[in-house]
Amino acid sequence: MSEIKVEGLTKIFGKRPKQGLKLLDEGKTKDEILEETGLTVGVNKADFEVDQGEIFVIMGLSGSGKSTLVRLLNRLIEPTGGKVWLNDEDLAAMDDKQLREVRRKKMGMVFQKFGLFPFRTILDNVVYGLEVQGISEEDRMQKAQNALELVGLKGYENQYPDQLSGGMQQRVGLARALANDPPILLMDEAFSALDPLIRKDMQDELLDLQTKMQKTIIFITHDLDEALRIGDRITIMKDGAIVQVGTPEEILTNPANDYVERFVEDVDRSKVYTVKNIMVRPETVNLEKDGPRVALQRMRDADISSIYVTNKNRELEGICHAAEVSAAVKEDAKDLRPLLHTEVPTVDEETPVHDVFDMVSTSNVPIAVVDENNRLRGIVIRSKVLAALSGKEVNLDA
Amino acid sequence: MRETFDGLLDFLPRIPLGDTIEAFVDWLTNAEAFFNGLRGGIAGVTNGFLWLLELLPAVILILLLTGLAYWVVRNQEKKWGLPSLVFFGLLLIHSLEYWDDLMLTLALVLTATAISIVIGVPVGIWMARNNYVQMIITPVLDFMQTMPAFVYLIPAVAFFSIGIVPGVVASVIFAMPPTVRLTNLGIRQVPTEMIEAAEAFGSTPNQKLVKVQLPQAQVTIMAGINQTIMLALSMVVIAAMIGTDGLGREVYYAVGRNDIAMGFEAGISIVILAIMLDRMSQAFNRNAK
């Protein structure tokens, strides 16, 4: 179910924004409108839906409108046009009081430079969102305490923000956003101010927390690696407009245009693709039905030197090698069983390609891809791994 | 040649700016009841401060102020400078027999500062919230600060007669701008992300002001108040021209009589009071950080 639905959401900065809205409707570009009227198009008719429990990443370079877009979602910036549906309510049409309720109960926000209050202790920072709602002292302290524990900052309650490192400060920011347990989290470049190692830790931690909490997270970043790591789906923005929405694989393998393609050029694909994307359909023989002659014939036809053996349920039994099968055929053997090698390398479909490099390079047979019931789903061969790394021949329908 | 150019502006009549203002001020004095009420109020506050200051014998007050000075610098490395300055300074003023004048001047400065804060901080907040208000009030503040302070004495006398009250009023006009300006500045300088955080978590505008903007702007606002105290003190001598008693009057008399000894003694008393107030309010501000 979609938790947030955005329709034609537009922000135009300048003195008479409605005029710009009309020009956009006429199909003028951002640059033309700037030249004609001096208005700046911040966000240009964004449409997307975010599902409940999803990490939805909005990515773009600076100036692409991503930070503006996220602020339109909680109206820190007032939209010029369009709608933001929150379940069945249009956020863009709410009055101040309704909006405040939504901000208090439904959305938490995490900021790039943390946005902590330096004159408040850590606990008092985390408690802020609950305090403005008028929740009782005891209740809110308890909730804030829980949120601090969740992000691993127990014991720091009475320190001040400037006594903490950047990573810890952002944990405080996260705890503050989580304190009221809102269903939606808006994260504006939340980890961009942290150094790379800490950033990776925080990404892992967010993913960990997400498995427990199942929030709907809108995550803004300019870092493609970060987007690919944590995003269930990614939106790419340019000049205020949405260029492409898709899963990380879709974005990588099927860039909508040159802009996206340039973006994804330098990505380490091996960490994004899984075995599922590069495995091929194997030649197999059925242990119960087929004999050495059939096996040998199939290997000759496919020009391969070994073949995987399954039973009638397609459960993996082992592998046979051409040389041994050929010898057995000469001796007129009828059964494959004595020729079967049961020690075979296996992986599951979701293993990142990165993690099978070693196996592929040391094994002299293809790697078998099996599911949890040991059924053979496919095989990984060396040439496919190399093709995937160069960005070609990847199977997304798998 | 010269005559031709000089003649060019002859068509301009003499614009009666001064007369107009005078007529306006005259007209304002019609609201006598209002100004009498105000006069009573200001006199009440000043006398209240004075009563409080004179409640205790001088020796106790000196010890109390020394204790207060120690308390405000207790967290700093040099703890003894300010308390000793306060202690010996006040003793000196007492021995010069200016104690009563000091109390009067202190009461005037405290009253002017209190009124400046009560009016100035809300005006500063209003300016910070509204760009149009800022646009209108900024030149008014410039006017208040650049108009020679003596000029304020004239309407002050017109409205409030002579004595300590017009002195307080002139001091307020002259001393209030820094508090207004720095309140405005302090609130506007609160980082955007902090404001966004306050809003994103559903603060009402008042919650945002009280829980985020004012605490964050506190140091800047206090710096403005410190300036206000100093300016109010600088008005003390000028206000003596309209019959405001206190240390200022002694300086003013000394100038009239060309009395170097008296001028120096009264002058040094004002200097001691100024340093005391300045250092104590600054140290107080540092503690607030």
UniProtKB/TrEMBL annotation, chain A:
Topology in membrane: Peripheral membrane protein
Protein name according to UniProt: Quaternary amine transport ATP-binding protein
Q: Which reaction does it catalyse?
A: a quaternary ammonium(out) + ATP + H2O = a quaternary ammonium(in) + ADP + phosphate + H(+)
Please state where this protein is localized.
Cell inner membrane
Which organism is the protein's source?
Salisediminibacterium halotolerans
An example GO CC term for this entry is:
plasma membrane
Q: Does the keyword DNA-binding apply?
A: no
Domain named CBS: residues: 340-398
In terms of superkingdom, the source organism counts as: Bacteria
TrEMBL record, chain B:
For this protein, the record's InterPro entries field holds: MetI-like, MetI-like_sf
Q: Which family, according to UniProt?
A: Belongs to the binding-protein-dependent transport system permease family. CysTW subfamily.
Q: Name one GO molecular function term.
A: amine transmembrane transporter activity
Its GO CC terms are: ATP-binding cassette (ABC) transporter complex
Pfam families referenced in this protein's UniProt entry, alphabetically = BPD_transp_1
The keyword Membrane appears for this protein: yes
Q: Ranges for the ABC transmembrane type-1 domain?
A: 102-281
**What compartments host this protein?**
Cell membrane
Q: Which organism is it from?
A: Salisediminibacterium halotolerans
Q: What is this protein called?
A: Glycine betaine/proline transport system permease protein
Instruction: Name the UniProt key words of this record, in alphabetical order.
Output: Amino-acid transport, Cell membrane, Membrane, Transmembrane, Transmembrane helix, Transport
Where, by residue number, does the polypeptide cross the bilayer?
A: 49-73, 80-96, 102-128, 149-176, 229-248, 260-277
Q: Note the topology in the membrane.
A: Multi-pass membrane protein
**GO biological process terms held by the UniProt record:** amino acid transport; choline transport; glycine betaine transport
- Give the domain of life: Bacteria
